[in-house]
Amino acid sequence: MTEAAIRSKPSEGTKGRRWTLKLLQLSGILALLLIVVGAAATPGFFTIANFQAVLASTTFVGLVAVGMTLIMISGAFVSMSLATTATVTAMFFVFALQFGVVPAILSTIALGALLGLFQGLAIGAWDANPIIVTIAAGSIQEGLSVAISGGTTISPPSDSYTFLNITPLGLPLGFYALLVLVILVELILRYTRLGREIYMLGESRAAARAAALPMGKIGASVFCIAGVAAACTGILLAAFNHGASLLLNRGTLNYDAIAATLIGGAAIAGGRGAAWRTLGGVIVIAFATDLVLLRGYSTGTQILLKGIVMMVFVLAIHLRSKERRR
Length: 326
Description:
single chain, globular, mainly alpha
């Protein structure tokens, strides 16, 4: 056998990966069929009111996931502090309402950007480990919040914020804010120098360093935008719950945002992803969650089924992308 023939012959490892990919793709198709069949057999699923409820439920996870998308594209893996930032900024927003709703909104957004800035500088300029930095940042934010608030729930001094809970066309204002953020991030990624640098940094930090890219500036910009997205989440969370505390929606916000970003096709190693695809991932999670809720499954079963769907989608998408690059 010639050397060329040997090179052209697929290795056992390659065959194994292809079989794994085909199996996962088949599993994904079966999962989609099960979702469709289950939805058709579930009373109330195919109704306008339910679709509005599902889209409304995408707001909080979606805003955080768009910020997570930028972080992932830049090669900083994931942030473990965005959910905490959302909670802390929600508390700050309620406190700042005493100065007026507009100053409260603007100062809360500025706080989110500032919290992101420090993390981005540490990761981008000093090449610090993003997981360690964001976990530490989350702990610091939480500790300061406990020290300031005493761990109690903060109630708004007035109802000047209630306009944030309006529902134009049956959808909350936050959903439209999510759409605006997706469009803005897509414009940044596609048509600005910063967007190109974010992709370049994610593809290869060594190449970015050799090309003298401003890594500190890029990291700071990415985490600033993610911090603003988390702050917007905090504002809407506080308005929706008419108050804020450290227990406010801390549950699975970070993990759902990470899962949505991965389902949307972003590469956790960096260099690939898009905000509009992340929005699609958020909607997939929202519909899967809504279906198991309407079916009346227990909480444990809900988490299990949602996790299986996420795992199948994520592995199929990323193995397919890996195969295409070979």
